[in-house]
Amino acid sequence: MLISLFGKSKLVVSIVALSFLSLSHGQQSPSDTLDITSLEQIVLTATRTARHLSSLPIAADIVTAEEIKKTNSVRLSDLLSEQTGLITIPDFDGGEGIQLQGMDSQYILILIDGVPLVGRKAGTLDIGRITTGNIKQIEIIKGASSSLYGSDALGGVINIITQTHESGFQASVEHRIASFNNQNSTSNINFKKNRLGVDLFFNRFSSDGYDLIPDDGAQTIEPFLNHTGTVRFTYDFSKMLKASAYGRIYDEQQYLPAALTLQYTDVIQVDTLKEYNFNLKVDWKLNPKWKTEFDLYATRYTLNSPLDSHDGSSITGGDFDQRLIRPEVRAIFTPNKRNTLMAGIGYNQETVVREAFVENPEFDSQYFYLQHDSYLFEGFNVIAGFRYDTHSLYNSQLSPKLAMRYQLTDELAIKGSVGYGFKAPDFRQLYLNYSNRTIGYSVIGVSGVKDRLNQLVTQGQLTTDSAGRINQIIEEFSEPLGAENSVAYNLGLSYRPSSSFKVSLNLFRNDINDLIETLPIARLTNGQNVFSYKNLDQVFTQGVEGNFKWSLFDGISIQGGYQLLYTADKSAEEKFESGEIFAKESVFSSAIKLSKNDYRGLFNRSRHMANFKIFYNVPSLNFDTNLRATYRSKYALFDTNSNNYLDRFDDFATGYFIWEFAMNKVFFKKYKFGVGVENIFDYTDSLNATNIAGRIVYAQINFTL
Fold it and tell me: Which residues does residue 224 pair with via DSSP β-bridges, in sequence order?
């Protein structure tokens, strides 16, 4: 559904009124007063304040450090692909993005300790570049979260919380060797004495890559080497005033395909990626009711692709340099145990330099957000808030959100939320000017359509028909791109009849409007198209997901999850329903008119996804083991019958199971030895699942002081 500014304003007014209503109530304590010392899982991302996961009215999950250690996962992509409603999707560069509730990776905001990563060349942020060696927990917030996080949180937020040491000295080193000559080395040094704390982390990861299609002149994933280094200094000036400085450096070198590079040079070329993150944070507790937080964050992502053609022009799209500076200040007011008010204000300055851009753009934006977390009465929690974003290039955005949870009984609770999310047009959609020299097509950002098309006409590169319509085409793209936006609904139940068993169910729907689509706008004389971007489609994703966890008896627990997903482009549904779409059952049959029942929704989505895990732990022997499985039902990446839509006559990739096993044993209290197998039954699909390498056998050893 479309939400007008007036409609969103009414929701904000309701939120403010609800906040004053709850503040006017007495001092009756809620049934779930937060106790930070509890062993229950604490989540920070959903409200930007510490809350028990079980008490949140927002759809959220946590991956703990304990699960990371038991499964021996070494990259973020390994972990997220085993969570309900999430799946890793390969991009054209060999990286991996994350799909959440059917929403593409370009709509999922990735954070480390609450601040965003940059470096999305084509909308996808490669989560494979994030190591797990110093992760405390991963928080997954499902549904639009722009009310706190602004652009890019249209579909949800994934926040990686890194470890900090509380007291004393601790150090550890770990090395893992696996199939394909995968080598992963990690070291941690943590120190805290009196007021000063220091956390150091280093990771080195290398691989020979793998090849799913032999004799095609290139590996599926070429050899690579990357390093991650982080340092955090913390200093407690007093119990009321604390500060920390965090720095992270990531670099990667990846070989380009030999068959490509040797066409232009006698030396195999290497892409070089570098990423820098710095965050200065100050927490000042003025009194028991007032707290302020200040962040100064800066990040830079660079990619150097040295491969040039004989005329000196770039074959790989040129170098890429993106920078972001963000100061932000928050104030948190807790007048009583039933209410928490938070307000924040911040500023973004973002720049990109890329050879394939028509200019070097700069984005400036300011934002303000307000949130009220309250208990209207015992067992009934309400979180209401909104955020207002201004921007130098696109229209201002108002992003409200309302979430509620009611504890029906000691065992049963119901929760629901509705929120607005948006994603601003990115640099690529506005400023790209790229021509593929191998295939011959071109892609133009909206701001460069007029100049580039006129240039192509002057050079005689457009067909007569396209050249004759040049003014009409330019007029169609004279309007600036609008922000993509979404309204997300979640309704859930949680049931916990005992401390050993719990189950949850969540219904969800995401209505996405003004989706920015890539479409052909003119035809070149070489037969290829010129593409650009336009706000066109309205799509939705909806479904149900469920999770359970059951501790059968001491040492054994099982858990699992399932997602049922439906997706559709609303304009496509209308065309199928009106009988405008045709397809052939086979190459020898005549075309038949399709109905709405023949439509299969958006590409690269599976109707069914599931996961199952069984853990066995013997504390007396310092031993643990687990068996894990993930399932993805059939899906389609391309239209194979040339009607531009996905229907039941298209070719689908077969569904698959991935089974994984891990086992760990601690010796002499300081040495931990682990072995395991990923993808036990060696499933591969060279055409559709290039991020699944085949069976990987590994062994690792850890030494802790």
Answer: 207, 254
